TrEMBL record, chain A:
Residues 24-41 have a biased composition (Low complexity). Residues 24-47 are annotated as: Disordered. Residues 56-391 form the Leucine-binding protein domain. It comes from the Bacteria. This is Putative branched chain amino acid ABC transporter periplasmic amino acid-binding protein. Residues 1-18 form the signal peptide. Coiled coil: none annotated. InterPro entries: BCAA_transport (IPR051010), Leu-bd (IPR028081), Leu_Ile_Val-bd (IPR000709), Peripla_BP_I (IPR028082). Keywords: Amino-acid transport, Signal, Transport. The lineage of its organism: Bacteria, Pseudomonadati, Myxococcota, Myxococcia, Myxococcales. The keyword Magnesium does not apply. Transmembrane segments: none annotated. The keyword Transferase does not apply. CDD domains: PBP1_ABC_LivK_ligand_binding-like (cd06347). It comes from Corallococcus coralloides (strain ATCC 25202 / DSM 2259 / NBRC 100086 / M2).
From TrEMBL, chain B:
GO terms for molecular function: L-isoleucine transmembrane transporter activity; L-leucine transmembrane transporter activity; L-phenylalanine transmembrane transporter activity; L-valine transmembrane transporter activity. It comes from Corallococcus coralloides (strain ATCC 25202 / DSM 2259 / NBRC 100086 / M2) (Myxococcus coralloides). Belongs to the binding-protein-dependent transport system permease family. LivHM subfamily. Keywords: Amino-acid transport, Cell inner membrane, Cell membrane, Membrane, Transmembrane, Transmembrane helix, Transport. The lineage of its organism: Bacteria, Pseudomonadati, Myxococcota, Myxococcia, Myxococcales. It is found in: Cell membrane. One of its GO terms (biological process) is L-isoleucine import across plasma membrane. This is Branched-chain amino acid ABC transporter permease LivH. GO terms for cellular component: plasma membrane.
Length: 403, 306
């Protein structure tokens, strides 16, 4: 038994070390996880970062808990880059995206960014989906003076890291606001409980605004419980919530947890609707949640039901490249972010950090597939949100809520 | 009151799974003084084997009694084989090396399995969580009030299986020749070898047994929480390891009691105090036990042999 303590310590040390150094390059876009990789790879082997190409960097969760987000985003970016190259590239040069997998971990994301900047000398960085990872990245990108556009990180503090950081999606307070308004005015709920993911800046951000806004509109928050990403047993929290008899539960987490939460809530006899944000947006939600998630609502950036021509064309092109998969909001935002970046590279006099930064900042009424994008003085996109309802194993459009 | 009972049931259900996983840690530690950190990941592999079998059987067959038996059998036999391979090729060559070497190898295997299973090539499952099919059709066995307290059939089944396995294991270790050999190897494997005990075979069998147990536990876990992901082994494995240490690692009933206690402590912390404190309290509980009884609740502190 006495040997146990040193062994434990050693084990922890090794674990820590193992967690440190594992940012694996997944190579050029479309490299490693070959199965789903779209064709952004520029003619096979590693292209030289020479004079004839412009290298963009991307950091995404290709493995780990938020993998479907990272993969969707990568597919969206790949499509935009493919189209730009087909149309002659930028300034006569082809675009290349260098993608690193951060395994859904902020510390890996930070390392990947450092690598993109120092070794790959990228002109611009795209990523991440999870706000926690984007926050870690933004610090490095800002310090190095490399512009960064996050497609879908909605935590406000991401762009507050500095003038080089942009986003093409709305921010968390807005999503919390949208759901509070929807719950109070459309669903007419009086008492709502909250179950947040206390390991995620995103979830905490949404919760804060939701609580405040819901109370402002005359509703009552009956309980606030939390869980940690990766948990699979939420029965204790749900049992505590059940006692307060809420009419709805706000769960602003990610799909991998929300599906299970829904099942366990129903199992414990909680029949009220669940509500959430864009972290729910994944086909996986319906598989994991099964019939338990039916009748729940979430706010999102975009709905594939949108009849707009632009959106239709995007969906068709995306399907063609990805074995018929319907693009989710993450794919749409990845696509939009890459297109904003490409547009800025075209408009900038050269590809230096300050020039590209200034060009991105001028983005106004840019026709994205997830809504028109105008960047405000704080480098955030101003746009409306949609509310979707889970019905018959898919999400259906309910309403649009404007700022 | 009904809330208290529901918490008790939830806590016991969680603790039961920890217990089955903890038994594997305890057995391997008992025989080899090795903390097999890959144990949780072997469990994960077992769950995926069960998942694949259920998938192959189809919706109807997987829900029949024989379907469930087949799913458990495939996963447990498959994992026994995996346990054998790991022991044969990763641990046996290091048997005479310092103990730390094997421990680091164990962590290596743990990572190889949990990250290897996130690849999306061929038969490998990819990184995203999957929903485990409802192989035991859930039904409520008894309900107090208007669904105030809910108990599910699989919760009761899991609990009974865990208790039965614990009893079987206790019998095996203390009442059979194999158990006697295990204990002899545990005491001093060189001397045991001199006495004619086939130590390699005993150790290999212990690994196979503990891995099969892990697969069974994993399936019960997947049935309980419905989600299957390549990283599930790390989390459950760590908790089960803590449970084994609380109970006194190397001690079979200790592992079970430690696990049930851990499950209940976690449940009550989340239910009545702050849900953010769950892991802090779990590890705090571990530290407390180690401070008061360094050998764990049921363990004995062995004098260091010099």
């Amino acid at each position: 038994m006495r040997r146990l303590a040193p062994m434990l310590l050693a084990a922890l040390a090794v674990l820590a070390a193992a967690c440190e150094k594992k940012t694996q390059p997944t190579g050029e876009a479309g490299g490693a996880p070959a199965a789903q990789a779209p064709a952004t790879a520029q003619g096979g082997g590693a292209p030289p970062a020479g004079d004839d190409v412009i290298v963009l960097g991307e950091v995404g969760a290709l493995t780990g808990g938020q993998a479907t987000f990272g993969i969707s985003t990568r597919n969206g970016i790949a499509l935009a880059v493919k189209e730009a190259n087909a149309a002659g590239g930028v300034k006569g040069k082809k675009l290349v995206v260098r993608v690193y997998d951060d395994q859904s971990k902020p510390e890996e994301a930070a390392q990947a960014v450092t690598r993109l900047i120092t070794q790959d000398k990228v002109v611009l960085i795209l990523g991440e989906v999870a706000s926690s990872s984007s926050l870690a990245m933004a610090e490095k990108a800002q310090a190095a003076g490399v512009p960064m556009i996050t497609p879908s990180s909605t935590n406000p503090s991401v762009t507050e890291k500095g003038e080089n950081i942009f986003r093409v999606c709305f921010i968390d307070p807005f999503q919390g606001f949208v759901m509070a308004k929807f719950a109070r005015e459309n669903l007419k709920l009086n008492k709502v409980a909250v179950l947040q993911d206390n390991k995620s800046a995103y979830s905490i951000g949404l919760t804060e605004v939701f609580r405040q806004k819901f109370a402002e509109l005359g509703g009552k928050i009956t309980a606030t419980e939390s869980y940690s990403q990766g948990d699979t047993d939420y029965r204790a929290q749900l049992t505590a919530i059940k006692k307060t008899q809420p009419e709805g539960i706000y769960v602003p987490g990610y799909y991998s947890e929300v599906g299970i939460i829904a099942r366990q809530a129903r199992e414990l006899g909680l029949k009220v609707p669940l509500m959430g944000g864009d972290g729910w947006d994944s086909e996986k939600l319906f598989e994991l949640g099964g019939s338990a998630i039916e009748g729940s609502y979430f706010s999102n950036h975009y709905s594939p039901d949108n009849p707009d021509e632009r959106v239709k064309k995007f969906i068709a092109d995306y399907k063609a490249d990805n074995n018929g998969a319907v693009p989710d909001a993450l794919a749409a935002l990845g696509y939009d972010a890459a297109r904003v970046a490409i547009e800025a590279l075209k408009n900038a006099p050269d590809t230096s950090g300050p020039a590209v930064r200034a060009a991105i900042a001028k983005t106004k009424d840019f026709p994205g597939v997830a809504g028109n994008i105008t960047l405000d003085a704080k480098r955030n996109a101003v746009k409306s949100a949609v509310v979707l309802k889970v019905q018959d194993g898919k999400s259906t459009y309910v309403t649009t809520i404007s700022p | 009151m009904s809330q208290l009972i529901q918490h008790l049931i939830n806590g016991l259900a969680a603790g039961t799974i920890y217990a089955l996983v903890a038994l594997g840690y305890t057995m391997v530690y008992g025989v080899l003084k090795l903390i097999n950190f890959a144990h949780g990941d072997v469990m994960m592999v077992g769950v995926y084997m069960g998942y694949a079998t259920a998938f192959a059987l189809g919706r109807q067959a997987q829900r029949s009694m024989w379907g469930v038996v087949l799913i458990f059998a495939v996963a447990m036999v498959g994992c026994a084989l995996l346990g054998f391979l790991i022991e044969r090729f990763a641990y046996r060559p290091l048997r005479e090396k310092p103990r730390l070497t094997a421990l680091i190898t164990a962590i290596g295997i743990s990572f190889a399995l949990s990250y290897g299973f996130q690849l999306d090539i061929g038969f490998l499952p990819g990184a995203s969580p999957r929903a485990f099919p409802e192989v035991i059709v859930p039904s409520e066995w008894f309900i107090i009030g208007d669904r105030d307290v809910v108990v599910w059939n699989w919760q009761v089944i899991s609990f009974l299986i865990a208790v039965a396995l614990m009893a079987a294991l206790q019998f095996l270790v203390y009442r059979t020749r194999f158990g006697k050999a295990m204990r002899a190897v545990s005491f001093d494997h060189r001397t045991a070898a001199l006495m004619g005990i086939p130590t390699d075979r005993i150790i290999a069998l212990t690994f196979m047994l503990s891995s099969a147990l892990a697969a069974g536990a994993g399936l019960l876990y997947a049935i309980k929480d419905t989600s299957v992901s390549p990283l599930m082994g790390l989390y459950v494995g760590l908790k089960a390891f803590v449970a084994a240490v609380i109970g006194g690692i190397g001690n079979v009933p200790g592992a079970v009691v430690g696990a049930l206690l851990l499950g209940l402590v976690e449940e009550f912390v989340v239910g009545y105090a702050a849900s953010t404190w769950r892991d802090a309290v779990a590890f705090g509980f571990l530290i407390l036990v180690l401070l008061v009884k360094p050998g764990g609740l049921f363990g004995r502190v062995a004098a260091e042999k010099v």
